[in-house]
Amino acid sequence: MWMEIICGLVIYKLVRRFFYDDEFSDVETSDSTALFSVAHRLEKLYGGKAYVGLRIPDADTASRQDIDVVLVTKGEIVVIAVKNLSGIVTVTSDGSWVCEGGKHHTTETYPDPLAEVKKQASVLESYLEQRGVTLLEGNLSCKVVIPNPSFRTIHAFPSEVITYEDWQQLKPASKSKLSGWVKGAFSTGKDMQESSHQKLNFILGTAPTWDRSYISSLLKFNLNIVRVGKSFGSS
Fold first, then answer.
1. Considering only CA atoms, which of 72, 66, 47, 53 is closest in space to residue 8?
2. Strand locations in the chain (E)
3. pLDDT number for residue 100
4. Which of 33, 99, 148, 156 could form a disulfide with 29 if both were Cys (CB 3.0 to 4.6 A apart)?
C-alpha cells in the first residue's frame, strides 16, 4: 500500500507540473495519486498543512489506523477519508457502500466510510492527548471526500460526505478562517493557541507513516527529474 502511495506522489508531481493546469484533471487516476491531489488542493484553498498517509497507533486494538489525510489549520483539525470511487454507488442498510461499474466494470463493497473516518478521528484525538495536546470542543471534525467525476449516486449523503459536485464548488478561504465549502462543511472550530498549533504540527510531522528515509530518497529523485524537465523545456 505504502509503495503505491509513494509512487503515486512522484507520478502526481511530474504529471501535474508538465502536462496539466486544471486542478481537477488528475483525479481519475490511482487512489494514491488522488490522495495527494486532494491534500494539495486543500492546502492551496485553506492554507495550513495536510499530512498524508499517517498510521496512528490504536490502543484499543493494539494496531494502527491508516488515515488518508489530516488537514491542520489555525482553527481546526480535519480527518479526511478520500474515496476515489468511479461508478454508481448505493448504500446498504448497514451503511456499507456498493460501487458498481467504473472503468473496470466490477462491483465492490466498502465498509461505511463515514463510520470509519469517525473512528480514525477518535483514535487520532486519543493519540494527541497521549502526546500532550488536548483539543477544544469543535476543533476536530471528519469528512469523506469523493473527488472522482465518474462518481454517481441517487442517495442524499450527510454533510460530512463531500461528493464530486461539492468538491468542485470549493473556494479559497478568507484570511481569518476556513470558508467557501458547502455551508458548514469545514469551519466549525475555534482558533487554537499558537503554542498548541505548533506542538500539533510537530506531533503529526513525526507521527508514524511510511519509511521516511525511503520517501526522502524518492522525493530527491523526483526533484532531479523536475530539474531535468526544466532544462529540457528551456532548451
1. 53
2. 49-58, 63-72, 77-82, 87-91, 97-101, 106-110, 140-145, 151-153, 161-162
3. 94
4. 33
The amino acid at residue 16 is R
Residue 149 pLDDT: 94
- Grid coordinates of 216: 526522502
Cell of 196: 498548541
Structural contact between residues 172 and 154, judged by C-beta atoms closer than 8 angstroms: no
* Residue 79 · residue 120 · CB < 8 Å: yes
pLDDT for residue 7:
57
Q: Are strands 49-58 and 140-145 parallel, antiparallel or unpaired?
A: unpaired
User: Do 146 and 167 contact (CB within 8 A), yes or no?
Assistant: yes
Contact at 8 Å (CB) between 147 and 85?
no
Q: If we measure between CA atoms, which residue out of 197, 179, 185, 178 comes closest to residue 135?
A: 197
Type of residue at 225: I
Distance CA(53)–CA(65), nearest Å, equals 10
Query: Measuring CA to CA, how many Å separate 114 from each of 68, 83, 96, 98, 128?
Result: 13, 11, 10, 14, 21
- Give the mean pLDDT per block of 10 residues along the chain (235 residues): 54 46 53 91 92 92 93 91 95 95 84 96 95 88 95 93 93 52 46 80 89 49 50 54
Q: What is the DSSP secondary-structure string of 74-127?
A: SS-EEEEEE----EEEEE-TTS-EEEEETTTTEEEEE--HHHHHHHHHHHHHHH
